[in-house]
Amino acid sequence: MAWWFLFSASCILFYGLYWFLQPIFASLKNRHPLSFEHYFADPATRNKAGKIGHFVFPSIYEAATLSLSVIVPAYNETVRIPPMLVETITALKERNSNDPSFTFEVIVVDDGSTDTTCATVLDFVKAHSADVVRLLKLPYNMGKGGAVQQGVLHARGAQILFADADGASDFACLPKLERELARIARNGLGIAIGSRAHLADDAVAERKWYRNVLMHGFHIMVRLLSGVSDVRDTQCGFKLFTRKAALVLFVNQRLTRWCFDVELLFIAAHQKIPLAEVAINWAEIDGSKMNLMDASLSMGRDLAVIRLAYMLGIWRIEYPDSPGVVAMLPRPTETGDRVDAASAVAALRKAYPISAAAARDKVTKAATATTTASK
Q1: What sign has the CA pseudo-torsion 305, 233, 211, 218?
Q2: What does each C-alpha distance from 199 to 2, 205, 211, 221 come to in angstroms?
Q3: Is 107 helix (H, G, I), strand (E, B) or coil?
Q4: pTM tops 0.90, yes or no
């Protein structure tokens, strides 16, 4: 019996260690977030074969061409996303009609949905044009953090907002975030985050009691484990970034599922990026896919992983213009031209290695060849 007990205890211990370190393992084997090349469909155009035209998404490394980009991560949101998009697009179009200098886009990032989310979003693309609404379809499920990250890295806005697909956050609160962002931003860097912390005291919205308990308990863990102590609500899905701040933060984001918000705030604190927390109106929307037990355990683990990985140097904050980061940028030969997505992606993957190490070697060899040729 003793050997069986030791064997069982060892198995549990090793499985627990693997589960705890899983986010670190995932970050080491995942593709670099900049290495993805995405395409959006424009139903108003056709290629030579008569099929819907596809265009390359721009990169956050390019200059902003719009005032605001709204990033909406979506996974099986056929039911909840239409009202959210109607509210968002209506509000932004009304603002544009009053101030033509204000321009915007809404990027819905489909995170491997198995329902009709993509078709639903494409209906909005047809109704409002691909210049207003764009669908970014991920090749596989990356998690909410990964979906937000990919949307941000391909946005055109001078300011970038990510908002949850359920529409729980009142979009009318956006001007409050914009005012705070304008007040605190320094050298093009700034973050304004929506907060529901006041809801525990005020009757702005009715929240289930266990959500308030979880919010406060999670906040205590955030302060103890991650060191982010000056934010009362890190998880509200309504955050506004300057383009420069978004570039610095999302290039370095490793967590793609739980607690990616906390990691972003951790990086922001490390880089001394100004931050403001703004109380917003919020309403609980039915249909959440979050399992409270699984979420609670995973969030606690991820908070500890953030502290451990950065403390040990497993994760390092890199500057967006460092050679290793820039080397990961895809270089399409016909950026912006109508292309066949499948063949273009295949060509890109063949020409540009996925791993950072291979990309750096390619850049080094190219530089060496150029130097040799010049001699």
Answers
A1: positive
A2: 53, 6, 11, 20
A3: strand
A4: no
List pLDDT tens digits, range 21-55. 888 888 888 888 888 889 999 988 887 777 888 88
Under DSSP, is residue 374 helix (H, G, I), strand (E, B) or coil? helix
Q: Which of 13, 30, 24 is nearest to 312 (CA)?
A: 24
CB 319 within 8 A of CB 297: no
**182 phi and psi angles, rounded to 5 deg:** -65, -35
Residue 367, in any domain of the structure:
no
Q: Is residue 325 part of a domain?
A: yes
pLDDT by residue (tens digit) across 335-361?
A: 444 334 444 444 444 443 334 444 445
For residue 191, give both structure tokens: 């973050």
**87 and 12 together in one domain:** no
Specify whether the CB–CB gap between 284 and 207 falls below 8 A: yes
pLDDT at 109 over 90: yes
Q: Which residues have C-beta within 8 Å of that of residue 149, sequence separation ≥ 6?
A: 33, 142, 250, 253, 256, 260
Buried b (16+ CB within 10 A) or exposed e, 63-89: ebebbbbbbbbbbbbeebbbebbeebb
The answer to whether residue 248 scores a pLDDT higher than 80 is: yes
Alpha helices per DSSP H over 132-283: 144-152, 174-184, 209-221, 243-252, 260-270
Token pair for 278: 């703004």
Residues 208 and 307 occupy one common structural domain: yes
Classify residue 16 as exposed, middle or buried by CB count within 10 Å of its CB (0-12, 13-18, 19+): exposed
Query: Based on the domain organization, do 19 and 41 belong to the same domain?
Result: no
5 and 129 in a common domain: no
The DSSP output letter for 134 is: E
Range of the domain at 191: 33-350
Q: How many CA atoms lie within 13 A of 9 on its CB side?
A: 6
- Report the b/e string of 134-144 with b at 16+ CB within 10 A: bbbbbeebbbb
What is the distance between the terminal CA atoms of the chain, rounded to a whole angstrom?
74
Answer yes or no: is 366 within a domain.
Answer: no
Is 360 among the domain residues? no
